[in-house]
Design a protein that fits this description.
The complex is a heterodimer of chains A (368) and B (512).
Chain A (H helix, E strand, L loop, with lengths): L20 H48 L11 H12 L6 H13 L15 H12 L1 H4 L2 E2 L12 H10 L12 E2 L2 H10 L4 H8 L2 H6 L11 H13 L6 H20 L7 H6 L3 H8 L10 H21 L6 H18 L25
Antiparallel strand pairs in A: 1-2
Helix pairs in contact in A: 1-2, 1-3, 1-6, 1-10, 2-3, 2-4, 3-4, 4-15, 10-13, 11-13, 11-14, 14-15
Chain B lengths: L18 H4 L13 E4 L9 E2 L6 E2 L4 E4 L8 E2 L4 E10 L7 E9 L19 H10 L12 H10 L4 E6 L8 H8 L1 H15 L3 E7 L3 H12 L4 E6 L8 H9 L14 E5 H13 L5 E7 L7 E6 L4 H7 L9 E4 L6 E2 L13 E5 L1 H4 L12 H5 L6 H9 L3 H7 L9 H5 L6 H56 L31
Parallel strand pairs in B: 8-9, 8-11, 9-10, 12-16
Antiparallel strand pairs in B: 1-7, 2-4, 3-6, 4-5, 6-7, 12-13, 14-15, 14-16
Helix pairs in contact in B: 2-3, 4-6, 5-6, 5-8, 12-13, 12-15
The chains are: A mainly alpha (368), B alpha/beta (512).
The structure holds iron/sulfur cluster (2 copies).
Chain lengths: 368, 512
């Protein structure tokens, strides 16, 4: 039986719950809208230009791939390319130059997705894969974080400046001198810990949980406001677009480990709230780790997957070389997802986990 | 979730669309149609054998075809009239293949044969009652079309702890059981008592989904005076009406894989079947009509009708306000598990719980796109299977892996396809794979049967040769010794035990 070509519309059921891929993708995009808008506000027009460039590049690449592979071009409307571009843009520094945006989007769609055979076939989350590829290739550009310069503030660039910044690499207020860029909190705490400084003291001085929660810190476009990410994530849970398993087990595991670490040695292990509100943890838990294609499909598998992400995340943050670990943790678990799926096969009705029929007390035979 | 009930997994909540047809009382006053098509096969077994000839006049309730074989069932004339012919007609099946049918032209007199109801069924031997049910031609009316008498006899062979009368009717659109329970509660309770008497069940439960409050109230009232008939309310969820899920909800037990509900002491009968049994045993009436839901977005006035078997479907639509638009899909049964009808020129049969004419919007069909591994099908599967894996393996003709991922336990309920955002026709893949497997099993069986025969023959020849040899040796020895000596008795040629094991159907044909 060859694929979908032989589709004969006579098999039951003759009803459907009206869900569709494009609706799901649209819902995820909607859930990302608040945090994206907040990112635009915080980082101004250049962020908008960078975002639109990434999304457009992703869509055009998808179109080209569909064309080359002679797949129906209408598949573009499933919205997955837009979502991939969107998710990628949110991981990038808000003022990333155009070639980072376009190169990343191209990589995400081609190497991240189409090379495996298109939607549903890829092993790794395309957006995260592209982000890591970019980070390895262009570490400087990928770790240059602009300060929060709200779109309506005096020294924020206008739309024309934005194009110049993104497309021509025009410097804006000569970067470091004016303190317009700096490290993220995670980067700072990492550097501090490496230098033997007292992390707890430093954090209590500088780190503002409030800022981290609302999103007034340096970081990539989408990983600033924990609050807005959380709102979008909860909406996805309510609309049953994603299930609770992955976010809850990921955040729960991370919180537990952070708590234990902090309890054992507050000097070198920051507390639970720092872990949960900084970097891309929240957005990773709700939007990247929950990617259908690259996460397990059984409920127990999802719990294991989330917990695995949490453990790896904590380990890399605490002992690894990179300050930011969400992308690595999720990608690593992506690779394990098929295995997790295999070992967490649900128990079928009337069978034990082993697949044997359940035992029963046989009904007595009557003599008639 | 209701306290004390078993927790069932998965399932979906499809749009009910039940209000339209549930609002009106059953219309049992349909005028006689011009002609009735009575297929010889309205049950799970062989064609029934016709007992009438063209031109013969028959009376209402007269047996016109006799069961031929174990899973076959009798067919009776639904009204008085003349047999026009015995000919092929289009069957209510997606294939649209022709099948033999008795064609009856009603004479308008609706003249009954003399009915001979038993005086007091509750004092009769149970086996005799099962035989009466058999004679009445009753089959599972929830769509299983398995002869009811066989199930009753199976029930007698086992100790049945719980008899479940299935009134959960979980398919969207269908309200025949709902209306039947509301309007004929006393008959259903009496039918349940009869079945309980026949199979000597300890506990009798009528299980109804919680979205049918009037039916629940009616049955509670009807059962109140009788005692020992429990009305159990189960949560409304598709596929609650599937025997396995209902058994779990009511008793907390799962039917072990590969076993039947008898094996754990449970028997499930559909309410409509129980009603038909009551009609047969109390009034002596054979199965000649049934209540069916005529509904769907294309139907002018959706409602339930009590129609004669053999009534053409187009006639039913005409009697229910006609078709307002051209239907995108014609179905027999509900939208989740029903079968596509090739045309409206097909008859109503014993297993038709509904005939639906759906609009394009209702069917909501789309071209399938690739699986995005969203896991919704896994969450929806009431059997705890991995539909996405089963479909992938089936597509690649890797049936062993598909079996392993759950195909062997799949009840084809369609919950997975219903929720799949990629619109993948999962059930179609499963039907395909099951078909292929059945075919290869059949040829395997044939092969191993031939091998067995050959092995048996070889063994017999060897045994015979050995016996001859032994006899020769014995003779020789006797001759040599010249003394009368007891020779080894030649081994008798054992009778070939070619008696092939009875290959009864293993599927559990509980009313779904
Ligand atoms: S519901 Fe459809 S798309 Fe989702 S995992 Fe199952 S088969 Fe794939
Ligand atoms: S059709 Fe089979 S696989 Fe799909 S939900 Fe029903 S039992 Fe599960």
């Amino acid at each position: 039986m060859t694929a979908d070509a032989q589709y004969i519309p006579t098999a039951s059921p003759h009803a459907h719950d009206r869900s569709s891929i494009d609706r799901i993708m649209l819902r995820v995009c909607l859930a990302l809208t608040p945090v994206s808008l907040w990112g635009f506000y915080c980082f101004g027009w250049p962020a908008v230009v960078m975002f639109v460039t990434t999304c457009l590049a992703a869509i055009l690449t998808e179109l080209a791939c569909l064309y080359v592979q002679q797949q129906p071009l209408s598949r573009l409307w499933d919205g997955s390319a837009l979502l991939t571009g969107w998710l990628l843009a949110l991981t990038l520094p808000p003022w990333a130059p155009w070639w980072i945006a376009v190169g990343g989007a191209f990589f995400a769609i081609t190497i991240g997705k189409q090379i495996y055979g298109g939607i549903g076939q890829n092993v790794f989350n395309p957006a995260l894969l592209a982000r890591i590829a970019l980070l390895i290739s262009f570490p400087v550009q990928l770790t240059t974080w602009v300060n929060v310069t709200p779109i309506d503030s005096a020294n924020a660039p206008g739309l024309a400046d934005a194009f110049a910044i993104i497309f021509a690499g025009q410097p804006w207020m000569s970067d470091a001198a004016d303190g317009i860029t700096g490290a993220t909190w995670l980067g700072a705490s990492k550097a501090a810990a490496a230098g033997g400084a007292d992390l707890a003291a430093m954090l209590s001085q500088d780190f503002s949980l409030y800022d981290a929660f609302l999103g007034l810190t340096r970081g990539s476009l989408g990983e600033t406001s924990t609050l807005l990410v959380l709102l979008g994530g909860i909406w996805l849970l309510i609309t049953r677009t994603i299930s609770w398993h992955i976010p809850v087990s990921l955040l729960g595991t991370l919180a537990l480990l952070a708590w234990l670490g902090n309890l054992s040695n507050p000097q070198s292990y920051p507390g639970v709230l720092f872990h949960l509100t900084s970097g891309g943890v929240m957005i990773g838990a709700f939007f990247y780790a929950t990617d259908y294609v690259t996460s397990p499909s059984t409920p127990v598998g999802k719990l294991i997957f989330g917990a695995g992400c949490g453990v790896v995340l904590f380990a890399i943050r605490s002992w690894g070389g990179f300050p930011e670990a969400v992308a690595f943790a999720i990608l690593l678990m992506n690779a394990l997802a098929p295995l997790i799926d295999r070992v967490t096969k649900p128990r079928a009705y009337g069978r034990r986990h082993s697949g044997d029929a359940i035992k029963h007390t046989p009904a007595q035979r009557r003599v008639v | 979730m209701l306290f004390g009930l078993g927790k069932i997994r998965g399932g979906v909540h499809p749009d009910g669309h039940k209000i339209d047809s549930a609002r009106l009382v059953i219309n049992s006053q349909l005028p006689l149609p011009d002609t009735l098509w009575l297929p010889l096969c309205q049950h799970s077994g062989e064609d029934a054998r016709p007992l009438v000839q063209a031109g013969e006049r028959v009376l209402k309730g007269q047996r016109i075809a006799a069961a031929a074989g174990r899973f076959s069932a009798n067919i009776h004339a639904p009204t008085s009239g003349t047999i026009t012919s015995i000919d092929t007609i289009t069957m209510p099946h997606p294939s649209g293949l022709p099948a033999n049918a008795i064609i009856l032209q009603p004479d308008g007199k609706d003249e009954w044969i003399t009915l001979q109801p038993p005086a007091d069924p509750f004092s009769m031997p149970q086996e005799a009652l099962a035989t009466l049910v058999e004679q009445a031609g009753i089959v599972g009316m929830g769509g299983a079309i398995f002869p009811a008498a066989i199930k009753l006899r199976q029930g007698r062979r086992f100790e049945i702890k719980t008899l479940i009368v299935n009134g959960s009717e979980c398919e969207p659109y269908l309200t025949t059981d709902d209306r039947l329970m509301r309007e004929r509660a006393a008959e259903i309770v009496e039918g349940a008592r009869l079945v309980r008497y026949i199979i000597e069940a300890y506990r009798t439960v009528i299980a109804i989904e919680d979205n049918k409050p009037q039916a629940i109230a009616a049955l509670q009232e009807a059962a109140a005076n009788v005692g020992a008939i429990e009305i159990v309310v189960v949560p409304a969820r598709y596929p609650m009406g599937s025997a396995k899920q209902l058994i779990q909800a009511v008793t907390g037990l799962e039917v072990p894989a590969g076993k039947r509900s008898n094996d754990i002491g449970v028997l499930v009968h559909n309410v409509a079947t129980v009603y038909a049994i009551q009609q047969a045993l109390i009034h002596g009436k054979p199965l000649i009509s049934r209540v069916t839901t005529v509904a769907g977005g294309c139907v002018g006035e959706p409602r339930n009708v009590e129609a004669l078997l053999g009534t053409p479907i187009h006639y039913l639509f005409e009697q229910c306000g006609g078709l307002t638009t051209t239907p995108a899909r014609l179905l027999m049964g509900g939208p989740m598990m029903g079968q596509v009808l090739p045309t409206t020129e097909v008859p109503l049969i014993k297993g038709s719980s509904g005939v639906l004419a759906l609009t394009k919007a209702e069917v909501n069909e789309h071209m399938p796109s690739p699986c995005i591994r969203c896991g919704r099908c896994v969450d929806a599967c009431p059997m705890g299977l991995l539909p996405l894996e089963m479909a992938r393996n089936s597509k690649q003709d890797d049936f062993d892996s598909a079996q392993d991922a759950g195909l062997r336990d799949c009840i084809l309920c369609g919950s997975c396809s219903y929720v799949c955002p990629s619109h993948i026709p999962l059930v179609q893949y499963f039907e395909y794979a099951k078909g292929e497997l059945a075919e290869s099993r059949a040829s395997q069986q044939k092969l191993s049967y031939t091998q067995e025969l050959m092995a048996a023959r070889k063994e017999r020849l060897e045994r015979e040769a050995a016996a001859k040899e032994a006899a020769k040796q014995a003779k020789k020895a006797k001759a040599k010794a010249k003394k009368p000596r007891k020779a080894a008795a030649p081994t008798t040629v054992a009778a070939d035990t070619a008696d092939t094991a009875e290959t009864a159907s293993t599927t559990d044909h509980a009313g779904a």
